[in-house]
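Problem: given the chain below (493 residues), write out its structure.
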Amino acid sequence: MNTKKNTCHSRENLKKIEAYGVLSTHHRMTIPLQEMPAQDPNERVKNMSEVSLGYTEEQALVEANRCFQCKNAPCVQGCPVRINIPGFINAIAQRDYQNAINIIKQTSLLPAVCGRVCPQEEQCQSPCTLGKTLKDKNKAVSIGRLERYAADWDRQNHLVKSPVIQAETGKKVAIIGSGPAGITAAADLRRAGHSVTIFEAFHKPGGVMVYGIPEFRLPKKIVELEIETLKKMGVNIITDFVVGRTRKLLDLMQKDYFDAIFIGSGAGLPKFMNIEGENCIGVFSANEYLTRLNLMKAYQLEKFETPIYHGRKVAVLGGGNVAMDSARTALRVGAEEVHVIYRRTEAEMPARAEEVGHAKEEGVKLHLLQNIHRILGNDAGYVKAIECLRYELGAPDTTGRRSPVPIKGSEFTMEVDTVIIAVGNGSNPLIKQSTPDLAVNQNGYIITDTDGKTSIKGIWAGGDIVLGSATVILAMGQGREAARSINEFLAQK
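Solution.
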């Protein structure tokens, strides 16, 4: 993208907006959508720096003035944590960036994260009145980009402040996991004056934001800043602590005297496909692959000695954000070719359209309506190729998406030396195995009511460990709801 040319257009549009004075609905409809500046594809595949560069001030002001400021605010209903979206956008339009971030932080502790990785196009932007009026959901107000702008302004001006803490209650709450659900619950509970301790299995807090999402989508310094905010609030974080192994869940209540527990441990158990050749050398789960690169910095060869498999021709199985992250990461660590194999069409891909678009720009090849049948290894046990089948779409499945049906006799082989399996995750069974009374469903996910309460009194859960697979903002929403319920419980106790 020509950033300089884009900035000039934004400046011209801003002058027109200022000339209008009071903007009518018609005026707002004529303001063009502001595209996000980004690194050139040919350059970004050579580095791990952030791809999307963020709005300039002119772009943010122009985009904010596209908002109708609807009284019924359908965008707020589409937001899992119910951010006052018209309020913060209006503040940006008025150049009151401090007020904009203050409004956002009333309900979200992670605006810089959500502004980057949440699928706003499927959540808050989906019901946007502007998008519906223009009969094009892709022209809705860019709420996520504006949220990112406000959060980045806050950080760049060194104005990030810790939330106000109410009087100490003397109550203790344990949070299992430091991902989006755990961080949100911890922040809300600490705000209420409770003593909060987070137990994290890894050596660094942040959950999927640290081990799963690549640096080029979410810089780790941003996550570290959010963690520092928690610490400044007085939240205690204990790492290298595996609940169910280091300490049983119920022992935290019965021996360590925690008054309530929130489980936000995520769903980090990788799923495999149980196909022939899956044990060949060169086959990886996306979890392992991304964790080595993101959490353990395997891409910084000059600083870290993390072992990483450098594939030349890489096949990624799956069509979600994790598949896109794996494919784009493989390019950045030296792969000559990266192929994404997906059994439906691009329209059915669960990955964000922006991530799919970035992947294609960078040279990732999409193989649609195809799926792997088996992995072929050489005499030494290394991957040498994959055998695939072609598919066609049949009747809709239980989710409403048309089911892929294999075409008989359509087998073909593709030469690859690395296979990354990104077809989803399951729940880690450790907590359930060590807590027999904790009710789970047939897939091992914890069963809760709408408040996040589990089958054991005093224990709540939320995020991927309940939903199976969720966005950052959905996990945050569950953490917030559970915190509200825990506050009520502790007040009664």
